[in-house]
């Protein structure tokens, strides 16, 4: 094992067992830069998780952080970022599957002056119009192939960040991670820069039933609106 620190820490979250994240771990295992990845698994308990050490041995390092019952994602992501040892950190959803060059492209981009680097997105379940509607609503700006360059916003729950700027938020980080566009807007307001790197690609599974799409988007946009109002200290009338 390399005796230096990992460059990129990958945060995985499961509310139950290892089976929830087994498929995405398989995609991480075939990364060309897997020996530079630290895998941090956030789970209620290690006993309940029942990890598969054989599937995790090819990475720079892996460990489990016990967080108790998970009822909100943002604080758990933030705790994972705090526990990470990498120069950069990224949360990977259990339904988003990075292509083999994803990690290497993110690592190379983070050599630049960017606080955050986001990947290009592809649709993992493209057979229905509902899936495409969900995919384009969430990731329309970052659909592969795309052109690399500075960005005003990057894909939520897909973007990697240099760890140091995130640590400056302290206890606020969990709240900001609940609505990631708020975090990115704050980074920009404080002089940091974002970068879109389409050489890093991830294949995202989307909601494919109309009722679920309406429910998911309702809650997404309600959360976004609440965070926008809170950040701007809006009056009751403006809200």
Write a short abstract of this structure:
This protein is α/β, with parallel strands linked by helices. It is built from ten helices and nine strands. It is globular, with a radius of gyration of 17 Å.
List key phrases describing it.
239 residues; globular; single chain; 21% strand; alpha/beta; 37% helix; nine-stranded mixed β-sheet
Q: What kind of oligomer do you see?
A: single chain
Question: Which H/E pattern describes the elements?
Answer: EHEHHEHEEHEHEEHHHEH
**Helix coverage percent:** 25-40%
The unreliable regions are none
Percent of sequence in beta strands: 15-25%
Query: What is the end-to-end distance?
Result: 53 Å
The counted number of beta strands is: 9
User: So how many helices?
Assistant: 10
Query: Largest sheet, described in full?
Result: 9 strands, mixed
Estimate the global geometry from the Cα principal axes: globular
Question: Radius of gyration over alpha carbons?
Answer: 17 Å
> If you average the pLDDT, what whole number results?
94
SS class: alpha/beta
Explain what this protein looks like in three dimensions:
- The structure is a single chain.
- It is globular, with a radius of gyration of 17 Å.
- The chain has 239 residues and is α/β, with parallel strands linked by helices.
- The mean pLDDT is 94.
- Helix 1 links the parallel strand 1 and strand 2.
- Strands 1, 2, 3, 4, 5, 6, 7, 8 and 9 form a 9-stranded mixed sheet that branches.
- It has 10 helices and 9 strands.
- The chain starts with 7 loop residues before the first strand and ends in an 8-residue tail after the last helix.
């Amino acid at each position: 094992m390399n005796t230096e620190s990992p460059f990129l820490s990958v945060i995985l979250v499961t509310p139950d067992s290892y089976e929830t994240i087994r498929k995405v771990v398989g995609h991480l295992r075939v990364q060309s830069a897997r020996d530079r990845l630290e895998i941090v698994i956030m789970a209620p308990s290690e006993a309940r998780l029942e990890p598969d050490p054989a599937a995790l041995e090819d990475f720079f390092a892996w460990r489990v952080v016990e967080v108790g019952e998970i009822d909100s994602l943002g604080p758990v992501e933030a705790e994972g970022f705090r526990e990470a040892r990498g120069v950069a950190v990224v949360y990977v959803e259990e339904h988003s599957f990075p292509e083999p060059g994803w990690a290497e492209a993110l690592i190379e981009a983070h050599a630049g002056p960017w606080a955050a680097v986001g990947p290009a997105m592809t649709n993992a379940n493209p057979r229905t119009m509902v899936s495409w509607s969900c995919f384009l609503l969430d990731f329309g700006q970052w659909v592969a192939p795309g052109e690399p360059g500075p960005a005003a916003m990057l894909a939520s729950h897909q973007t990697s960040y240099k760890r140091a700027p995130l640590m400056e938020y302290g206890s606020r980080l969990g709240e900001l991670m609940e609505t990631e566009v708020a975090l990115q807007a704050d980074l920009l307001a404080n002089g940091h820069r974002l970068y879109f790197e389409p050489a890093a690609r991830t294949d995202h599974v989307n909601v494919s039933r109309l009722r679920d799409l309406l429910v998911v988007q309702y809650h997404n946009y309600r959360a976004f609106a609440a965070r926008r109002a809170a950040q701007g200290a809006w009056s009751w009338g403006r809200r």
